[in-house]
Every structure is written in structure tokens, then in C-alpha cells.
Amino acid sequence: MNNPVIQITPLGFPWETSDPFLFCVHHEDFYPPGNDQMGPDVSLEGRNIGNDFNVKDGFRMYHGQTVPGFPAHPHRGFETVTIARKGMVDHSDSIGAAGRFGNGDVQWMTAGKGVQHSEMFPLLNKEADNPFELFQIWLNLPKAKKMADPHFAMLWKEDIPVYKHKDDQGLTTEIDVIAGEVENVKALDPAPDSWAADPKNEVAIWTIRMEANASWNLPKASKGVNRRLYLYKGASIKVGGKDVPNYCAVRLDPELGGLVENGDHESYLLLLQGRPIGEPVVQHGPFVMNTAQEIQNTMNVFQATQFGGWPWPSYDHVHPETRGRFARFADGTVVEK
């Protein structure tokens, strides 16, 4: 019997992905209660403020000075899919869009021909800890779409389709279908210029929770599709009968599907899948194009235009402490949640 497992590798930072994805990062921090500035209500002494990626006392400040997160920075030529599993993210960008999202919400942003945005992590709870967990997935754009207009969309937790499977023991596997479909449970529409917008590309982004000892048959996909399954929290699992340790990635043969069997603890997994774009990739920091000359042109354009400038009071802009979840789009439309 053929086994679907091609390769098992330990997870590093960032996580290795396959075309059409560029990479995936998983941030998990255990922030203390917040202060009046929505930063951590503890001393930041001893940290490399502005470039704090080492876990100290359970958390990192990243590039944040006061509030953790990533102040304004540019992107061009790809998309970011940001899954905010715990805690809140404050988004602001150079096209005037903004939002506060978290606790299961997903933001899908097409950088296209160029955008600046900031992603700050306000600590809104002053009375208790502020646990935080986030995935950011970089999904490439094909050459024909790299200069698309920037686009910002929200997939709210309440609207994201969920697939639930009970095995013969009555144990549950639950999947948030962020892109693609599982057994006719279809995701919300992706960004219009995305590689994921064409169903023939079979792009799938699924976050998966398996009860202890649960089992589930991973559905098949087409030949040539790249598929990886990431076990990032929980017990060991078996895929097609092969043991997969915790905090490992599994590269899979999409045509074979495969039985996924969980161990003795609840497990959390991420699946990334898609037909490869198959074009040259030249990356320079936050810019992803097809040639070195395009990268140089991008740098020149950003220096000259700042991709529209920065309309917010500060590069680490956060929204008012009392503001709930919301999205303000570039056309002025506001959605409150």
C-alpha cells in the first residue's frame, strides 16, 4: 500500500512551505496585563527594544517600542493571510484601511503593486494576562497579478465555515476552512486577485483541532498539488500509519489522502495546499517579484512614493482602547462586530 508521507521535518522559524506559499510564521506569546498605553504593564528593561524577537518572561515585543507588534512596513507582489487565533491585532495601512480583529478572525491582504501596513498587538485586558497566538502566511501572486491594486478583506470568526467529523468512536476533528473546501464545506471567497480565487488551483488553508485519539481521513487532491500538514501543538500523530512527532511538518502526496490518527492529547494542525505557480521567485525582504530588476524597480518606487504615504498619527498606530472589533475599508465602508 502506498504511503502518503513523502517527508517529515522539524519546524524551524519561519516554517518551510511549498509553492504557491512563500513561508508561514507562528507567533505565540503570553503577555501580562496591559497598561494605559496598551503595552505590557511590566518593565521592558533588558530587551532589545525595536528588534525584540527573543522570548523573555513569556513574550516578545517584536519591532514594537510600547505596544508589541510590527510598525509600518511595505509589501509588494504577494498576499498575507493573518490568522489571529488569540488576542487582538490592530491593522492600519497606506490606503486608509484599518481594523481591529482577533480571537479567530482572519485578515486577507493583497499587497499587489504596493502597500504599507502596521500590525500591532494591543493588550486590552488590564486585569488579567493577554495570551496571543497568530499565524501569518505569505501566499505568492503570479506575475500577471503582482501589480494588482491592494486589497484588504476580513474573514470574521463567526462567518468562517467549520467542518466537523466524528469518527467511529464519536471523537471529533474540527476544521476552520479558511481557503478551499472540505467535504463540500466551502471557504468564504478569497481576495479577488489571489491565486486562491481560481478553484482549479486547489488552494487550501485549514486550521485543524483533533480530540485525543480521534481519527480522520484526509481527502485527496489532484496530482501536482503541493500539500503540507503541520503539527504544531499536541501529541504525536500517525499519517498513513507513519509516526509524526509534535512540532513537525509532513510533506504529503496529494493523490493518496491518508488516515490521520491523533495520540493521547488534543492536537492542533495547519494544512497548506495549492497548485504551484511555477514562476521564478526573487525576494528582497518584504518585496517578492520575478526578477532582480523588478526588485530594484520596486525599491525605487517605494523610496519615491512610500506606496501612498502614511495617513496615521504614528507608525505604530493603535486604535482606541475601548474600540471593539471592526474593519474600515479603503472606500470608507465600516463594519462593526
From TrEMBL:
Q: Which Pfam families match?
A: Pirin (PF02678), Pirin_C (PF05726)
Q: Which Gene3D superfamilies match?
A: Jelly Rolls
- Annotated ranges, domain Pirin N-terminal: 60-139
Domain Pirin C-terminal, residue spans: 206-308
In terms of InterPro entries, this protein maps to:
Pirin, Pirin_C_dom, Pirin_N_dom, RmlC-like_jellyroll, RmlC_Cupin_sf
* Domain of life of the source: Bacteria
Q: Member of which family?
A: Belongs to the pirin family.
Could you identify this protein by its name?
Pirin family protein
Which organism's genome codes for this protein? Lutimonas vermicola
Please spell out the taxonomic lineage of the organism that makes this protein: Bacteria, Pseudomonadati, Bacteroidota, Flavobacteriia, Flavobacteriales
